[in-house]
Amino acid sequence: MVTRKSRREIEQMRRAGRIVAEVLALVEGELKPGVTTGYLDRLAEQHIREAGAIPSFKGYLGGGRYGKGPAAYPGSLCVSIDDEVVHGIPAERPVREGQIVGIDAGAAVGGWHGDAARTFVVGTVAPAVEDLVAATRLALMAGIAAAVPGNHIGDIGAAIEDIAVAHGYGIVRPFTGHGIGTQMHEAPNVPNYRTGSRGLRLEPGICLAIEPMFTLGGHEVQVMPDHWTVVTVDGSLAAHFEHTIAVTENGPEILTTV
Ligand code: MF3
Ligand code: CO
């Protein structure tokens, strides 16, 4: 079921979104060669909890459920390096010069979630890799710009797909953006490509996490035996950017910002 959020509820989501944006800025500042992804995760969790929020990812089983056990997500961040697309699990693994590192963070305040991600470059990378990261960021902004009342979910995917096609990048298909609110993952799905149907008509109060994932190679991905880490099948590098936004009568509002 797709729910429309009130102005009050959107402002509550903005509180969660601000904490998520702070986490991404904090991690960006610490992201240097030698730092471990587990350290970044501990910093993130500390910031989220000190801000009075709850990490949305910790203990997540998928499908809106939380619990314990081997399939429960163990971190507060997802840290996805190079050919890892999304959902990389933080570990005692140092980041290295020349890598691209996707950081995804989620937090809930008073039961309302924010979810955002960015891909960072560590040191210097090839121009083609810089271009991948820049185009994925641009695709997120193009997708957000399409999130206006009267447009449809399909217009977001079309705007994102056009940028990938212009660059010849692969678009990851099994993972999509999503509705967000009192659950991290709500209806509707927000594909990063054309599906052949226009999808839901956008109205004020609809809140979405828009999250393009592009690769320098093919679109095929697989999930690692750790249950979570999504990698490209061909080993090509992947970039991911995400914001939580609200559709309003004045256009899209980004909630995951400071
Ligand atoms: N932000 C991601 C998403 O929207 C990560 C959630 S998966 C989790 O799908 F397990 F880490 F929570
Ligand atoms: Co998301």
Task: Describe this entry's structure for a reader.
It is a single chain. By secondary structure, the protein is of the alpha+beta class. The protein has one domain: Creatinase/methionine aminopeptidase superfamily (Creatine Amidinohydrolase, Alpha-Beta Complex). 28% of the residues lie in helices and 28% in strands. It contains four helices and 17 strands. It has helices at 7-30, 37-50, 127-145, 153-167; strands spanning 54-55, 60-62, 65-66, 77-81, 84-86, 100-109, 112-121, 170-171, 177-179, 186-190, 207-210, 213-215, 221-223, 230-232, 238-240, 243-248, 251-254. Strands 10-9-11-16-17 form a five-stranded antiparallel β-sheet. Strands 1, 4, 6 and 7 form a four-stranded antiparallel β-sheet that branches. Helix 3 runs antiparallel to helix 4. The radius of gyration is 17 Å and the shape is globular. The mean pLDDT is 98. The chain binds 2-amino-4-trifluoromethylsulfanyl-butyric acid (MF3) and cobalt (II) ion (CO). Cobalt (II) ion (CO) binds at residues 115, 178, 209, 211, 242.
Concise synopsis of the structure shown:
The protein has 258 residues and is of the alpha+beta class. The chain has one domain (7-254): Creatine Amidinohydrolase (Alpha-Beta Complex).
Order of helices and strands: HHEEEEEEEHHEEEEEEEEEE
Overall 3D form:
globular
Spatial separation of the terminal alpha carbons = 29 Å
**Which stretches of 5+ consecutive residues score pLDDT under 50?**
none
Share in β-strands: 25-35%
The assigned structural class equals alpha+beta
Number of strands: 17
- Which ligands accompany this protein? 2-amino-4-trifluoromethylsulfanyl-butyric acid, cobalt (II) ion
Q: Number of folding domains? A: 1
Radius of gyration from CA coordinates: 17 Å
Strand order of the largest sheet: 10-9-11-16-17
CATH class designation: Alpha Beta
- What's the oligomerization state? single chain
- Output mean pLDDT: 98
CATH architecture field: Alpha-Beta Complex
Instruction: Tally the helices.
Output: 4
Estimated helix fraction: 25-40%
